[in-house]
Amino acid sequence: MALLDAKIESPQELFVHKLGAALTMEETILEMLEKLQEEANDPSLRRQLEQHYKETQGQVQNLQQVFDALGEPVDRRPCPVIEGLEKEGDTMLKEVDESLNDSVILSGVIETEHHEIAVYDGLIIMAEQMGDDDVIALLNENIEQEAATLEKAIKATEQLAKRVVRQTA
Ligand SMILES: [Fe+2]
Question: pTM for this one?
Answer without folding.
Answer: 0.93
